[in-house]
């Protein structure tokens, strides 16, 4: 029989409610057994009957918890992950892995010493558009990539008062991990990083804009995000020697779970907005998307915990992301390119 993996969730904000709890419940062989929250009513509104505990120590003292998901505020990720690892638990940490490269390395060393699995949540490797792009590149339809441009723009002109909008690195710490991770998956470590990270909105407590160039020997990667784009549909622009691919619209899985939908059904992860491929002859046509499916991450995580597969996002890959994030902050502060 399949060994059931008991799961404890630290935090029930947007991440816990939309990105973690629904997928644990949808993953065969996983069972969500407890949630750490100071607001039991909020948890029970979405998870009736769920055991709610007040703090991390109480969670770690419960029997039957094999995997701990760290979805607390960023500055607590490292401490919570280390506490869970020292209690003998496997750990999944939401992005960003930590608030510093040193803390990320500290957590990774703890996991290695404990002999426990440590995974980092990079769900957007399983976005419909990114899966489509990987297929196009693998098939050679774009030729050699010359320029890769990745956007994650939003229209939020008035700063919020939440802790997320007060992060020290702001949007670069929030959305940057997604865009950097995708770039590293495709191209590996760059030779240089040039970053412009800034707070441009009136009254913004932390950066709400970034434009970052990753320099490679034969191509360039441009990562861009702003909270002041009324027209924010552009997602990818990729130019290669064999053609160009442009994709508008974002993967709909986040919006679906935020709206309370369960990750199930034949149409889950379907992105109805196709990209457009223009080949070297100038002919343009629509490219239907691969199906996005964050459930693939969760099933891979369950298999890895049972020793039946590879860790879907191991610590070394997340540390590589942290290296670029820290290099970007230095580059922006010093206004120059820096080698990671």
From TrEMBL:
InterPro entries: Gfo/Idh/MocA-like_OxRdtase_C (IPR004104), Gfo/Idh/MocA-like_OxRdtase_N (IPR000683), Gfo/Idh/MocA_oxidoreduct (IPR051317), NAD(P)-bd_dom_sf (IPR036291)
Signal peptide: none
Keywords assigned: Oxidoreductase
Location of the Gfo/Idh/MocA-like oxidoreductase N-terminal domain: 5-119
Gene Ontology molecular function terms on file: nucleotide binding; oxidoreductase activity
Chain segments annotated as transmembrane: none
Pfam families: GFO_IDH_MocA, GFO_IDH_MocA_C
Segments forming domain Gfo/Idh/MocA-like oxidoreductase C-terminal: 134-338
Family note: Belongs to the Gfo/Idh/MocA family.
The protein's name: Oxidoreductase
Organism (species): Sphingobium yanoikuyae ATCC 51230
């Amino acid at each position: 029989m399949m060994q059931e993996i008991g799961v404890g969730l630290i935090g029930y904000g947007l991440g816990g409610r939309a990105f973690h709890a629904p997928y644990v419940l949808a993953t065969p062989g996983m069972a969500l057994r407890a949630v750490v929250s100071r607001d039991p009513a909020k948890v029970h509104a979405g998870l009736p009957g769920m055991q709610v505990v007040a703090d991390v120590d109480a969670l770690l003292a419960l029997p039957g918890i094999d995997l701990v998901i760290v979805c607390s505020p960023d500055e607590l990720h490292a401490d919570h992950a280390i506490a869970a690892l020292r209690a003998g638990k496997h750990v999944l940490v939401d992005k960003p892995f930590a608030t510093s490269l040193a803390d990320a390395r500290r957590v990774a060393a703890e996991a290695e010493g404990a002999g426990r699995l440590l995974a980092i949540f990079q769900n957007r490797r399983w976005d419909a558009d990114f899966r489509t792009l990987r297929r196009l590149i693998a098939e050679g339809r774009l030729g050699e990539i010359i320029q890769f441009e990745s956007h994650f723009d939003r229209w939020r002109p008035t700063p919020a008062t939440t802790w997320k909008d007060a992060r020290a690195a702001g949007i670069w710490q929030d959305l940057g991990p997604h865009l950097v991770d995708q770039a590293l998956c495709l191209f590996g470590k760059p030779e240089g990083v040039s970053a412009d990270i800034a707070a441009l909105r009136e009254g913004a407590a932390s950066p709400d804009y970034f434009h970052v160039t990753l320099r490679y020997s034969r191509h360039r990667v441009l990562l861009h995000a702003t909270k002041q784009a009324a027209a924010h549909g552009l997602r990818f622009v990729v130019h290669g020697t064999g053609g160009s691919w442009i994709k508008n619209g974002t993967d709909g899985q986040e919006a679906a779970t935020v709206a309370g939908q369960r990750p199930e059904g034949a149409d889950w992860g379907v992105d109805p907005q196709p990209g457009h491929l223009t080949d070297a002859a100038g002919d343009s046509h629509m490219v239907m998307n691969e199906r996005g499916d964050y459930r693939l991450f969760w099933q891979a995580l369950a298999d890895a915990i049972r020793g039946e597969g590879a860790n879907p996002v191991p610590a070394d890959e997340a540390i590589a992301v942290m290296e670029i994030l820290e290099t970007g902050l230095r580059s922006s502060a010093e206004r120059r390119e820096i080698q990671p």
